[in-house]
Amino acid sequence: MPVTKPQPTRLPEVMRDYLKAYAQSRCRKLDDICVEILEGFLTLRPFERGLKIHVPMSLRSRAGEDQKWVQLNFFLSDELTLKVNQLCEESGAGVSVSGNSQYISRAAMLYTALYWFVKYMRPAQLEPAKVDLGDLA
Questions:
Q1: Residue 21 — φ and ψ, nearest 5°?
Q2: For residue 86, which of 68, 117, 109, 111 has the smallest C-alpha distance?
Q3: Global pTM?
Q4: Of the four, 9, 35, 71, 130, which is 20 to 30 A from 65 by CA?
């Protein structure tokens, strides 16, 4: 599948690190994992079942700097880029950002796909389960 120019989005550094570790644990490249996440997001369409579209913070803002947001580029095929663009254009008809119908940027759609995956599909285990080895004897 030929790849087009990068499609940028922004996300918290900790989320990017989690996705990198997730990709590495599956012996995959981050780019490939991001494409799979986006394909699942477009297939399952969780935004039609209540998921709010999340607008990423600007890297130029003080808040984006303070909260350590970083850029991540999606390398998408022409076909997948077209699907994302179509979804963004359709956004005024049913997809909402914080309850308000409006155009949604590609960056927001891509970030929302990553957010959905990390929050609902593969949430990080914050604390590993503690096993008392004495019970195993």
A1: -65, -40
A2: 109
A3: 0.78
A4: 35
- Whether residue 130 has pLDDT greater than 60: no
Q: Which of 118, 14, 16 is nearest to 67 (CA)?
A: 14
Q: Quote the Cα angle for 34-37-41, to 5°.
A: 140
CB 97 within 8 A of CB 88: no
Position 94 scores a pLDDT of: 46
Question: How far is it, in rounded angstroms, from Cα 136 to Cα 125?
Answer: 23
Kindly state the DSSP code that residue 58 receives in the 8-state scheme: P
Q: Which two tokens stand for residue 90?
A: 């359709």
CA 61 from chain center: how many Å?
Answer: 20
Q: Which of 35, 40, 41 is nearest to 53 (CA)?
A: 41
Cβ atoms 100, 53 nearer than 8 A: no
DSSP annotation of 3: B
